[in-house]
Design goal:
There is one protein chain. This protein is α+β, with helices and mostly antiparallel strands. Helix content is 14%, strand content 20%. It is rod-shaped and about 110 Å long. A hairpin with a 2-residue loop joins strand 3 (37-44) and strand 4. It contains 2 helices and 5 strands; from the N terminus they run βββββαα.
Length: 152
C-alpha cells in the first residue's frame, strides 16, 4: 500500500505483499513483480469485467464478457486463463529494430557494343562494306580495306 491508500476510484491496489494470499485468478502471475499493481472488477445483468495491471511486470489484461449471470466468477476465470497464457510467453524484451538494408552491389555497366570511331557518315571500304560490317565481324582489318573516304 502506498501512502495508506487501498483503493483508487474503485480499483484495488496490489503490491508484492499481496502475493502471499492472491485471489485465485492472479495465481498464474504470483511470482511477477506486483509493484504499483491494480485490479478492478464489475458487473451488471448480462456482463462482467475484470482488469489487472502490473506495470513493473509489463502485464496489462482486460476481460469484458457477456454472461447470463450463471457464473459470478466468469470474468475472473477467463482472466486466470489469460494470465496463465501470458506468463508462458517468452520475454520479447525491447522491440527489435529492423536491420539496415545493405545496398546492393552495383553491377558494372555492360560493355558498350563495338562501334566505329572517327567514322565519316556512310563510310564504305573498298569492297563496299560499311562500318557496321566491321562491328559485326571485327574491326582489326578495317584500315587495310579503306576506301576513297580514308580510314575509319
Amino acid at each position: 500500500q502506498s501512502g495508506g491508500c487501498e483503493y483508487g476510484v474503485a480499483w484495488g491496489r496490489l503490491t508484492n505483499g499481496d502475493r502471499s494470499n492472491p485471489p485465485f485468478f492472479l495465481q498464474p502471475v504470483n511470482n511477477e513483480n506486483w509493484t504499483d499493481g491494480g485490479e478492478h472488477a464489475g458487473g451488471e445483468a448480462g456482463s462482467q469485467t475484470q482488469i489487472v495491471v502490473f506495470p513493473k511486470a509489463g502485464i496489462y489484461a482486460s476481460v469484458l464478457t457477456n454472461t447470463d449471470m450463471n457464473d459470478e466468477d466468469a470474468a475472473q476465470k477467463i482472466m486466470k486463463e489469460i494470465l496463465a497464457w501470458v506468463k508462458n510467453l517468452p520475454n520479447a524484451g525491447p522491440t527489435p529494430t529492423p536491420p539496415t538494408p545493405t545496398p546492393p552491389t552495383p553491377t558494372p555497366p555492360s560493355p558498350s557494343p563495338p562501334s566505329c570511331s572517327n567514322s565519316p557518315p556512310n563510310w564504305k571500304d573498298s569492297y563496299g562494306d560499311g562500318c557496321q560490317w566491321y562491328v559485326n565481324n571485327g574491326c582489326d582489318e578495317a584500315n587495310d580495306y579503306a576506301g576513297t573516304q580514308g580510314k575509319t
